Structure formats: C-alpha cells, structure tokens
Write the structure tokens for this entry.
Amino acid sequence: QVQLVESGGGVVQAGGSLRLSCAASGRALSGNAMGWFRQAPGKEREFVAAIMWRGDNVEYADSVKGRFTVSRDNTKNTMNLQMNSLKPEDTAVYYCAGRNFIGLSTTVRAYAYWGQGTQVTVSS
C-alpha cells in the first residue's frame, strides 16, 4: 500500500509563489508516474501536472504552463510542485497522486493513490 502526504499549502497574494511537496511511503513509486490535481469549491477535480519516473517527461495543464514546475526526487520518494505567478483562480485544494503504471495521464481515474490534499489560497 502507498501513502501520500502533501505539504506546503497556504495563503499567498496574487503574483506570489508557493512550493508544494508530496512524500510517499509504504511502497516506493519509483518507476511509476505521479501527478498533481486540484479541486476548487463546487468544481470537479482537474489535472495540473504529471511527471514520469526519471523526470524527463512532464505534462502540464494549459492553465499553469510557464508558471508551475513539477519535479521529483526518487531517492527521497518525493515530488514537488513549484508554483509561481499565482492567480486567484489557482485557489483550490491540491492533491498528489500516484499511478501503478509508468505512463503519464491527465485523468483522475488513471491514478490509484491519493493524498489528503493541501489548501492553496491566492488572494487578489
């Protein structure tokens, strides 16, 4: 079984930055893809970013391209999301997710493991 724990959320003004981290325990996810999703109140959970095991293949939602950067450290079983130039519309609960497969995916149901989420609030 895999446990994922997010950290680093908080409140920031528009234009500011935050760095989210996801720590995996229980079973290493090295070799498998991981991703970040977010869910705003009253909206469906949506894809933010995904990264393959070696970190040499990443994918981003159009809404965050150029502002967010996903990375992972397989020696520490961690994944990070650097978020710059934050906007009020980035406000959401952010979730870390892990797959049982090596390929990237942007869909929620492709991910078997989920963290509990961390709140990110961007004030205008």
Q: What stands out?
A: The two ends are 40 Å apart (CA to CA). The chain has a mean pLDDT of 94.
